[in-house]
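Something for you to look into today, if you have time. What I am after is a single protein written out in full by you. I want to see for myself how the chain folds. Could you add the entry underneath, on a fresh line?
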Amino acid sequence: MLVNTHKQLLITFLILLIGWSAEAQVWTLDQSLDSALQYNKSLEMAKNQVSAANLKHDESKSQLLPKLMASGDYRYFIEIPYQFLSQAAFGGPEGTYNPVQFGVPHNISANLSLKMPIYDAQILSGIKISETYQEMSDLQRFRTEEQVYLDVSHLYYNAQILKNQLIFLQQNQGNGQKLERNTRLLYEQKLASGTDLDKVILQNQQLASQVLRLENQYLIVIQQLKLNIGLSLEREFEIDPEILLGEEQILEAGMTSDFRIQELKEKAVSQELRALKQSKIPSLNLIGNYGTTGFGYSGAPESFLKFYPVSFIGAQVSFPVFNGTITTKRIKQKELELTNAFIQKSLIQDQNLVQYQSATLQQKTAESQILTLQSQIKLAESIYFKTLLQQQEGLATLTDILLADNAIRDSQQQYLNALVDYLKATLELKKSTGTLPN
């Protein structure tokens, strides 16, 4: 008896565990978004771009550090170089020269060279530009995060709409099956024609085809959703079909990520233009060298290899004089690019305002329609069931029932369309106010 009790408890536990596991497969939108922000591959690549931009900025700053280079050189002269000596230096006539070979066959040098910029406008400008692109890459990552939010939300809402449409169709199937039973009974009693029965059967078959098509569409959307949130395609996954209308929030059009990115693009072009203009400023570098030079001779009467130190420290000034008007033409190109960047920023701002106004109006309209259509669905269902009862009493025809059924379907479809408009407007409103990831 005790063993049986333990078995019953174990079976009950397993049933509860299975039920809990099945329930755990239902993912909310927030859970899907959290998973996407952690595992989405596009967002992972955007984060790598941020790291690359940080390294690029560090690379720009490292241009200010001293550069130290070691070099070595060995040369064996098969023919010793010639030099011409004036004969006047040795008491000979003026204007006469004799060729003389100087040096030894073996020449060895080893040097350690130092170069450190003291002032270089190009390096300083490059650091500022790389810092701007660093900020831009971080905004690009945020923009990718927004796009992931949009993609996942669209897919999740699409799945919810399909799920609700399936629920409506399954309810309509139940109504259709009940209608078919009633019509068949009336047909058997010679109170309905065979054509009436065929119409009902055809309608139910069409409903079954629609259900099958929507089920396939739903599975496709679910697979796309799992891909975007970084889940295995073989994993069991289900969404919450309940669509909740959010509390109305007063949002104002703000600076979107697109606008801020365009601002940084304009800033980067302005810095590049300034860098081109500053390229005419001289650069000053500290230079130094420490090394040794060796001279060697192998042969009679005596072979030798001797080394002598070579070292110096100094400053090097570089000043561009003329480069064929290349810089001037580049400056004019950047000025035009800067003008276009400003126009583009203004255009994005205007587009964002239009998008905000349109989304606000669409959201209010859709919300009002949803409440109205919910009442219309209930009213259409009430009319349908009353007409069905009237048919059984011989007070309504099949045509009346089909018209009532079409009224239900039309209200259901309008309700789903209003939901789509509301969800789409909500996302557009968040995007135009810069509150999308919230």
